[in-house]
Design brief:
This protein is mainly beta and 301 residues long. The longest helix has 22 residues.
Length: 301
C-alpha cells in the first residue's frame, strides 16, 4: 500500500511538472539588429586645431556632432565648433583687428555624407563622401575693405569631395575642394589636402596613440596678390598625441601639433615681417601655424 502511494505521488508530480512546463511560453526570439545607428559626441578642447592651424587663437573650443549610419554603408552627419580666425585675419599693425567677417564669423558648422565599406571580408576599407564647411555671418564689403582696404572679403564656405583607404588603424585620405574660394582664399579651385592618420591601441591599457601627417596644397592666384596662392598658403602639418578611454564612453587626451613650410604671409602674426612687397606683415594677431599643445575631454553617446 505504501509503495503504491509513493509511486502514485511520483507519477502525479511528474504529470504536474510536465503540464507546467508545457504551459510555460517559449523564450521570445532575439530582435534582429537594427539597420540604423545614431551616435553623438561632445568635447571640450583647450583650442581647436584644424590641419595644424589654431582656429581659436589658442582659446578653448566646445565641439560636438551627430552621426547616422545605415548597415548598407551609407552615412550622414553634422559637426560644429566655435572659431575666431574669421574675425581676426587681415590684421594690420599696430594690432588693429579688421577681420574677414563683419557679422558672425564665430562658428564652423559642417555637414557631410558618404559611403564606407570593407573590401570583401578583409580589414581594408574605402570611404567616399562630400563635406560642406559652413561659416555663418556676413563678410565685409568693398567699401569696408578686406585686404589692404581694396577688395571685398570672400565667404569662407567650402565644399570638399573626399576619398579614403583604410586598414585597421591606418587611413590615407584625400580631400579636394570644388569651390573657387577655399576657406576664403579667392581663385583657389582645385586646392587639395592629403593626410595619413594612425590611431593605434596600446595593448589592453586603454591608451590609443594618435599620429597624423598632412599636406595642404593651394591652387591659383588671388586677385591683386603679388605671389601665388601656393606660395602664400601651402604648408605641411603633423600631430602626435594619446587618448585614454574612461568609463561611460568618456575619453581624455592630449596632443602636440605643428606645421612646416607655412608662410608668414599666409599664417603669420602681425609682428612678423614677410619680406614680400605688398604683403608687409602676417595677417593674424599671432602666428596660427606654430607648434602648440592641446588637451581635451570628450563624451560619445
Amino acid at each position: 500500500m505504501f509503495k503504491k502511494t509513493v509511486i502514485s505521488g511520483v507519477v502525479a508530480a511528474a504529470l504536474v511538472a510536465g503540464s507546467a512546463l508545457a504551459q510555460t511560453p517559449a523564450a521570445a526570439p532575439a530582435a534582429p539588429a537594427s539597420d540604423h545607428t545614431f551616435t553623438g559626441n561632445v568635447g571640450l578642447y583647450s583650442q581647436y586645431i584644424f590641419r595644424g592651424l589654431t582656429q581659436t587663437n589658442r582659446q578653448p573650443a566646445l565641439q560636438g556632432g551627430f552621426d547616422y549610419a545605415h548597415s548598407s554603408g551609407f552615412y550622414l552627419g553634422t559637426w560644429a565648433s566655435n572659431i575666431s580666425w574669421l574675425k581676426e585675419n587681415f590684421s594690420t599693425p599696430p594690432a588693429t583687428i579688421t577681420g574677414q567677417y563683419q557679422d558672425g564669423g564665430s562658428l564652423e558648422w559642417d555637414f557631410y555624407g558618404g559611403y564606407k565599406a570593407n573590401f570583401g571580408k578583409s580589414d581594408f576599407t574605402y570611404d567616399l563622401g562630400l563635406l560642406y564647411y559652413y561659416y555663418p555671418g556676413s563678410v565685409k564689403s568693398t567699401a569696408q575693405g578686406c585686404v589692404f582696404g581694396v577688395v571685398a572679403c570672400p565667404k569662407a564656405n567650402t565644399t570638399e569631395l573626399y576619398g579614403a583607404l583604410g586598414w585597421k588603424w591606418v587611413t590615407l585620405k584625400y580631400s579636394h575642394s570644388i569651390d573657387n574660394k577655399t576657406f576664403g582664399v579667392p581663385n583657389s579651385s582645385g586646392t587639395g589636402y592629403i593626410e595619413l592618420n594612425a590611431d593605434v591601441p596600446i595593448g589592453e591599457s586603454g591608451f590609443t596613440a594618435n599620429l597624423h601627417v598632412g599636406r595642404q596644397k593651394f591652387k591659383g592666384q588671388n586677385f591683386g596678390n603679388p605671389i601665388s596662392n601656393s606660395a602664400q598658403f601651402t604648408y605641411s602639418d603633423w600631430k602626435a598625441g594619446v587618448t585614454y578611454a574612461l568609463p561611460k564612453d568618456f575619453s581624455i587626451g592630449a596632443f602636440a601639433s605643428g606645421t612646416s613650410g607655412a608662410s608668414v604671409a599666409g599664417w603669420g602674426g602681425i609682428g612678423e615681417v614677410t619680406g614680400i612687397a605688398g604683403l608687409p606683415n602676417g595677417p593674424f594677431p599671432r602666428n596660427v601655424a606654430k607648434t602648440t599643445g592641446t588637451v581635451f575631454l570628450k563624451k560619445t553617446f
